[in-house]
Write a structure and sequence with these properties.
The protein is mostly helical. It has one domain. The chain is about 70% helix and about 0% strand. It contains 11 helices and no strands.
């Protein structure tokens, strides 16, 4: 006589276990917490943001004097994001490692055995990596903003702790890093290699924007503005300059993250483990 397991479907070969969406997210969260490299990279991200911001504040005091300090409020209000060029690479590497290490170790087979439909796994990994990156990046930027204003208070350059544009920018910094982490997960899915994923991430963020303007195309000097790093810079800018507004930069970043996620989902459905 067959029995129906409370955790699975009716089967003659024993109970089957089906993970809910919440269960998949919980499983991926546990994996991310247990990944030592991810913890190290997140810690380095915090250090990069805080040290660069505070160091920039000290350098600002040393390079400005007298009346010039009173005119330095705008750069002082943006120092919380000074460490972003390094932070984005560290967070992107977390995204790549989060999935690529499972392919390297072979544990991805166990993951897809528990969740045969692969797309929910990739979606959950992107959501977990993005959420963790948002928390780390946003909190670090807010803390850096406070620390910078404390350092600058004695020089009279400090802005309000609750400077609206700076607070919005700090939160946007976390959101930008979340998008980068999602892109990193997608690259890890497509390439299945930690080294290749990180190299392509560096090319996308740092190399291509410098090469595209050299192409013999009309308006090619404007194309880099729509690459992730440049759109992200507009997304977190305290003082709006350039072609894109803050919200438009955010939309461009969301499109990049969505494009890579869809590409990864389509790729993983067609390839064997």
């Amino acid at each position: 006589m067959q029995r129906t397991s409370s955790t699975g479907a009716r089967t003659g070969r024993g109970p089957s276990i089906y993970l809910t969406a919440a269960g998949i997210l919980r499983s991926e969260w546990i994996k991310l917490k247990s990944l030592r490299a991810a913890r190290t990279l997140f810690a380095l991200t915090v250090v990069a943001i805080i040290v660069t911001g505070v160091g920039g504040a000290i350098a600002l005091i040393g390079s400005q004097g007298g009346n010039e300090l009173a005119q330095a409020r705008e750069p002082a209000s943006a120092l919380h994001s000074a460490g972003l060029p390094l932070a984005q690479l560290l967070v992107g590497a977390v995204g790549v490692l989060f999935i690529a290490t499972e392919y390297v170790s072979g544990s991805i087979r166990t993951t897809f055995t528990a969740v045969p439909r692969r797309v929910p796994v990739i979606t959950a990994k992107a959501a977990v990596a993005g959420t963790a990156s948002f928390a780390v990046g946003g909190a670090s930027s807010l803390l850096t903003h406070v620390a910078v204003q404390v350092v600058l208070a004695a020089s009279g350059t400090a802005v309000s702790m609750f400077h609206p544009a700076s607070l919005i920018s700090a939160v946007a910094t976390g959101l930008y890093l979340a998008f980068i982490a999602v892109i990193g997960v997608s690259l890890g899915v497509i390439l299945r290699s930690t080294a290749a994923g990180i190299v392509l991430l560096v090319v996308l963020l740092s190399v291509l924007p410098g090469l595209v303007p050299l192409l013999p195309l009309p308006g090619s000097e404007q194309y880099p503005l729509f690459f992730p790093a440049q759109a992200g810079a507009q997304m977190i800018a305290v003082v709006q300059e350039g072609l894109l507004t803050q919200w438009q930069g955010g939309v461009v970043m969301a499109l990049w993250a969505g494009f890579f996620t869809l590409a990864a989902a389509a790729w993983i459905r067609k390839r064997d483990i």
